[in-house]
Write a structure and sequence with these properties.
305 residues; alpha/beta; six-stranded mixed β-sheet; four-stranded antiparallel β-sheet; 11 helices
Length: 305
Amino acid sequence: MIKVEGLRKEYADLVAVNDISFEIKKGEIFSLLGPNGAGKTTILRIICGLLNPTAGQIKINGMDISTDLAKVKSLMSVVFDSDTVYEDLTAMENMSFAANLYNLPTREAKSRIKELLGLFNLVDQNKLVRNFSKGMKQRLGIARALLPNPQILILDEPTTGLDPQSTVLIRDLILDLKRQGTTVLLTSHNIAEVEKVVDTVAIIDHGELCAYDSYQNLHTQYSDSLKFEIESFALAELLKFVPAEVAVLQSQEENRGIFYVKQLQKFLYCLGDGMGNGLVITKIQQAQLSLEDIFIQLTGRELRD
């Protein structure tokens, strides 16, 4: 459905996107992950035709966006994190205005607007959007994008500002769109939610593609890197017994540390050596590797860095 080949974007001395290639299949949920400034939104804007690439080619449904952009745009809807809705209009007025822009027939538009406003719990017809919470505005932006039943839905940080209930609603909506055959391309800092819906992942850092594979394949590939939770009031001292080639302390909160273990037998020996020298360890527990763990191993950074 979407094929990106050798994509590059330069700004003066900055290379924002460097020779990135990937393919998104029809009906797939595909996620671009990366720290802030990694190049995700730049890629989305190029795919949408809002930016011109320095080099590379993008085809959507077999059409080159450089020559068939109008046809390509008719296939997709986009919701950017920075999108704004019209604050001096109600939700109904926002949706009606958008329906006119999409040239939806009046009867179809009324039915679709009623359905979507109900789905997103935005049925108050008299409340101006300026009085909405950020989460409500985000829900309205997504509802507006779904009006034309797009073949491709692009979501840049779709759960930003949403409460837990709305986040679950968006997750269920994305899965329902997949069942209907809609192709979904999303970025998100809520990596735990991405993990629940995604089929294929591309991890980007400093404009470079660090990994690109199905979620299942990535998880299998990195599952031999074990994750352990260690509790000790002497974590700093314990680190002196654990070489970096054996295990890495990824995060620490007071007396609790998360280690990524490369050599299990040697790691356990190091713990024993530390305890033999008087260090007290109150908890040792293996934890399940997550998509965020894989991300951190590849980039060395938290998603919000």
